[in-house]
Structures are given as structure tokens and as C-alpha cells.
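Worked example 3. Consider a protein that binds iron/sulfur cluster.
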Amino acid sequence: MPSPELLEEAERQMVVCNACRYCEGFCAVFPAMERRRSFSGGDLTYLANLCFDCRACFYACQYAPPHEFAINVPKLFAELRADTYRDYSWPRLLSSLYRRGGLAAGLISALGAAAVLFLVFLVRGPEVLFSAHVREGAFYRVVPYLAMVLPALAMTLYGLAVLLMGTIRFWRDTHGSLGELFDPRAFLRATEDAFSLRYLAGGGAGCNYPDAAFSHARRWLHHLVFYGFLLDLASTTVAAIYDHFLGWTAPYPLLSWPVALGTIGGVMLLIGTGGLLYLKWRSDEEPAEGRMAAMDVAFLALLLLTSLTGLLLLALRDTPAMGTLLGIHLGVVAALFITLPYGKFAHLFYRYAALIRNAIEERADAATAD
Ligand code: SF4
Ligand code: SF4
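Given these inputs, the predicted complex is written out as C-alpha cells:
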């Protein structure tokens, strides 16, 4: 749980907002707040994870600093979210990665790439690392199949286990029964909200990011990142099916499903992450929170590096640079997967759970009104 001081400050701000209610049409947070008369730690954690950080309530607020009430809901909720990601992950030692998101991501990427290149150099020899490989199975001549697949599988399962257990603990602390988490109607509604980034659209004019002006830039760039990531996931899945069930080994032709999906997804990720990093660099710091901003930058930078090294690997796969690029790409991908449960990626799980709770509460409201 967040510190008692932070919870006390969050409760103070929510009591002011609950009396004011000026922002009730901005997003799902304010109607959810109005359903409550008092705010437990679980309530505040839920509200914070329902917030998309659109910042509309900061620029509209007549009680924002320098007013003595000092209401700054986006910053307050960002602090609570950073605590959520830290508190619900395990083990404790690794969850401290949240505090040093950028440093950890950079170090793990560099160490991962160096380790892969060193091992290939040592075990396969420099002639394999620095030669061109063009035939079927070219990548596996540099890094053997099992050395590539087994760590990736282990890291994915580990990350999923940490995030799912964290989500269940989050759900229990926000007063939910496990059965409700799998409520199909609420799940569908949450999926619709998440896939459309509904609450980054504001009232239709967009959100107030990177500054007070309304803009749809963040929403569209986030869409590019999210759907680019999904396309890359689809590319990896199709490649795995080709390899395991059809016996077709990579590298695949340019006009094949794994390459086409991977290339389109990679370009979308590159544009989306580059654009979001640019917006972050330009964004107003007053409604921002330091730990969350560091986490955002680390995650975006790792996604950008993953897509960049992946696209470079595709472009130069028939040249002697392939071995070195493969080592660097695998190192960056390893850093991305190791830090997934301890960085910004976690917001996908906690926000989804908050959207499910919101859908359940809205349905109960509608039933009462009927
Ligand atoms: S953020 Fe400010 S304007 Fe909005 S409800 Fe709270 S106190 Fe009122
Ligand atoms: S920042 Fe946006 S999403 Fe978050 S509480 Fe304010 S208006 Fe709602």
C-alpha cells in the first residue's frame, strides 16, 4: 500500500473534488469518485489506475496550484500508480527496478547484448559471428534454436505470472471478488474502452497533452504503439507455427506473413514510441510525477530500440552484420521482457482491472436508475 501520508493527501484532494464535481464529465474517474463518500486505500488505488493521465482536470481546475487547495489530480494519481506497480509485484528486490526504470533498462540491455555476443563469439567462433548466413536456419547458426526459444519462453511465463498475481492482489484490495474479475459483460466493455483509448479522446477534442492545448496526438501515437506491438506479437506467433508445425525455418521471404506483420508492426512501433518520447520531452512537468515519467521513458525507449534493431536486422540479414545485430536485438528484447512486470507495461493489467470494476459499477448504477 502507498504511504499513509500519500493516502491522506489523496483523500484530502478527493474530498475537495467530491464537493466541487466540476470535472464529472471528463472521464470515468470522477463518476466513480462520486459513488463514494469516503476513500479507503483500495478505493484510491482503484481510482488512480482508472485515470488515463489526460490532464484535463488539471488545466480546468480552479483549485490547482498556486491556489491554497493545491489540487493536482494527475500528479497525485501518477504517484499512487507508481506505488501500485511497486507494491503488487514480487520479489521485492526486483520490484525496486521501478525506482530506477531507465537505468535498469539500459544496463540490462547492454549486459544482455554483450552476453549474447560474448557467448556466440566464445562458443561458435568469430567466423560464425562475423560471416554472412543466407540459407534456411541462418539465425540458428549464430544463436542455436533452444538458446533462443527457452529463455524467451521462461521470461514470458515469469512476467505473466508476476503480473497476474499482482492483478489478483490489486483486485482483492479494491474490494472485488475473484468471480467479478471474469464477468464477461464487464470484460467486453473494458476491452472496448481499452482498445479505443476512450478516455484519451476527452469529450471529443482530445486530451491536454503535452500542454494545456487539446490534442489527439497522444491517443493516435498510443494506438500506433499498441497495435504495432500486437502485430509484432502476431508475427512471432505465425513464425512459431511455421517453425513448429509446418517445419518452415526462418529467415522467411519478404513477402511472407511473419515478415509482413513484423515489418508493419515494427514501423508502427518506431513512429509511435518516437512520437510519444517527443511529446514526453515537451510535456508540462507540473502535473507529472518523477518515478512514473522515468518508467514511461524507459519502456518507450526499450520498445523503440526493439523495433529499430529488429528492422535493421531484417534489412541487413544477408550481410556479415547479421550476427552482431542479432546479438544486440536479442539483448534488447531480453531487457524488455525482464523489465516488463516491473515497468510501465504493468499498467495494461491494472488499468484493465480498473476498467472492469468501472463497468460493473456503471451497470449497477444503471440497474438502480431503472
Ligand atoms: S480537479 Fe478541481 S475542478 Fe476538477 S473536480 Fe477536482 S477540485 Fe473541481
Ligand atoms: S487526468 Fe484525465 S483521466 Fe485522470 S482524473 Fe483527470 S480528467 Fe480523469
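Take a moment to read the result before moving on. The pocket of iron/sulfur cluster (ligand 2) is lined by residues 23, 26-27, 29, 51-57, 73-74, 77, 199 (CB under 6 Å). The chain has a mean pLDDT of 91.
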